Amino acid sequence: MKKYVLVTLSAVLGVLWIVLPLRLDQNAHAQENTTKDFVAPLVFQAAGPNSASIQSTVDAYRAALGNPDNKNSGPLGTGHREINWDGGGGVDTTTAPVTPFNTFLNTRGSQFTTPGIGLSQAPPSGGPQGGLAALFNNPSYGSIFKTFSPLRLFTPVGSNITDAFFFLPGSNGNTPATVNGFGAVFTDVDQPDGSGPGEKNGNREASTLMEFFGVNGELLFSSYVPAAPGDGNLSFFGVKFNDARIARVRITTGNTALGPDDDGKNDVVVMDDFIYGEPKALQ
Question: What are the tens digits of pLDDT across the range 106-132?
Fold first, then answer.
């Protein structure tokens, strides 16, 4: 079967990646776990030291899914959905961990779960509850994480796994749905050091993985999120298919759950904005 790998084009402030068909085994994780009728999606990804370094790629992904951002309207026939975890802007409270996370289940057709304690929205530090630094009792988190859209980030607690499911907006989770694409912003995906789940046969991969599944649980595509050096760097990864075939997305952030220091052994990673296609009801 033909293998597909990600080929990179480097820029000054970020990295833009595209998918090309090549007969190579390196980085072909997605294809090793898919059926022979595999269809490659469009892939959008970038990494860099600040918001500006990934902004153009995020905007291009929004346009590919279709504008506008439908926010809490719908269901609608076109456009896309976004979640920035910021409560309309200026909200710095830290929410208690909960799973399933149903805040956007009815309004934007998405539900998030984790095998850990729960999922929480929090600023890196500050606010009445102290942010991630207080939530995980690690003061260093107040400085190593940055936001793409201020003020809050999103993270599982007690695990580094987050699962996303989709439903028709306005159905209160009673009508399962699929989307044609899903992308996410990450903060502090460090340079690969060989200790993450992506290490295979001596190849060093980034620690953060995104997996996209169809309605029958089949793996459609998977890839590691690009890394960038230094604390608080930002990364983006998103895919788009020609039709709404994604029923679930699994995100593995870093090689460990939050708690320990971010060092040569532990790559701790937090999520920011989620961007996904308008949910379409299963037929």
Answer: 999 999 999 999 999 999 999 999 999
Residues ≥6 apart with Cβ < 8 Å to 219: 30, 33, 34, 211, 212, 213
User: Is 136 a residue whose pLDDT tops 90?
Assistant: yes
Q: CA quadruple 91, 92, 94, 100: dihedral positive or negative? A: positive
The two tokens of residue 239 are 């895919």
Q: 238: burial class by Cβ within 10 Å (0-12, 13-18, 19+)?
A: buried
Residue 246's nearest CA partner among 276, 268, 271 is: 276
For 265, phi and psi rounded to 5 degrees?
-95, -40
Show the tokens assigned to 72: 């809490």
Task: State both tokens at 46.
Answer: 């970038």
pLDDT digits (tens, 9 = 90+) for 13-34: 344 443 332 222 223 344 344 5
By the 8 A CB rule, do 263 and 141 touch? Answer: no
DSSP code at position 150: S
Distance CA 271, CA 253 (A): 8
Above 50 in pLDDT, residue 1?
A: no
Q: Are 110 and 164 in contact (CB under 8 A)?
A: yes
Q: Is the dihedral of CA 235, 116, 126, 196 positive or negative?
A: negative
- How far is Cα 276 from Cα 190, in angstroms, rounded to an integer? 25
Three-state SS at 241: coil
